[in-house]
Design brief:
It is globular and about 45 Å long. A four-stranded parallel beta sheet has the order 2-1-3-4, with helices on both faces. The two termini are 22 Å apart. It is 42% helix and 9% strand. The chain has one domain: 3-Layer(aba) Sandwich (Rossmann fold), CATH 3.40.50.2300. The chain contains eight helices and four strands. The longest helix is centred in the C-terminal third of the chain and has 23 residues.
């Protein structure tokens, strides 16, 4: 798996131009954007846990997945909350080098999949345009849809994680409207900003439970028992 600030090109000259997008990213990449409010609690946890779990399951084979985050009221340049760092440490995930970002049009344009903390965040992303509706879900909504997809209908991993990820998003979008949440709250991950560590940890566990089936579907590799 590739971090957003690394692996954005393959070299100089015409060969690089042919194999990278307008924004300088590899054409054979798949970009996941996690969105919350301040980009200092929920979305950093989700971003770094996604990277961690993909790396655990695929190692270098997951380098085509680029995972990042931003906030609708992002604290530009801020570090993540200390309690968020502790939650990541609990899972063995790396919190170093993180800086908050405000959500920009270019982030939405470049994303192949946008996963938001709440329905309001989802609505804000979709309202930005850029044909984002079919690739923007709340995290828990996407989990619910992914759980209904037969893994056998997805491309096998030997055809590449990027192809598999794109097929997964298309399949999830096709199910939207058929598999509704039992309650409105079921699709929400609540904001722990300013809360004590135990609440942060409960949110971390909630995010982990939602991410696990998503990463399994993306990679074709279940979590280690």
């Amino acid at each position: 798996m590739t971090a957003p600030d690394a692996g954005r090109g393959i070299g100089n000259g015409e060969r690089a131009a042919e194999q990278t997008t307008t924004f300088g990213f590899p054409r054979d990449s798949f970009r996941i954007l996690h969105v919350s409010t301040g980009n200092v609690c929920r979305s950093p946890i989700t971003e770094r846990l996604t990277r961690h779990f993909v790396s655990q399951r695929l190692g270098v084979l997951g380098r085509g997945l680029i995972v990042e985050s931003a906030g609708t009221w992002g604290h530009e340049g801020a570090s993540m909350e200390a309690n968020a760092e502790t939650v990541l440490a609990d899972f063995g995930a790396d919190a170093t080098g993180f800086t908050g970002r405000e959500l920009l049009d270019e982030h939405v344009i470049m994303a192949d999949l946008v996963l938001t903390a709440t329905r309001d965040h989802r609505a804000q992303v979709i309202s930005m345009g850029h044909s984002a509706g079919l690739r923007t879900f709340t995290l828990k909504e996407f989990t619910r849809l992914v759980n209904a997809i037969d893994p056998a209908t997805l491309p096998p991993l030997d055809e590449g994680v990027v192809m598999r990820a794109r097929a997964l998003v298309r399949a999830a979008a096709a199910l939207r409207g058929w598999l509704l949440a039992p309650t409105l709250e079921a699709d929400e991950v609540y904001d722990p900003y300013g809360a004590p560590l135990p609440f942060f940890r409960s949110i971390g566990d909630e995010i982990h439970q939602a991410l696990d089936p998503v990463v399994t579907a993306l990679t074709g590799v279940p979590a280690r028992a």
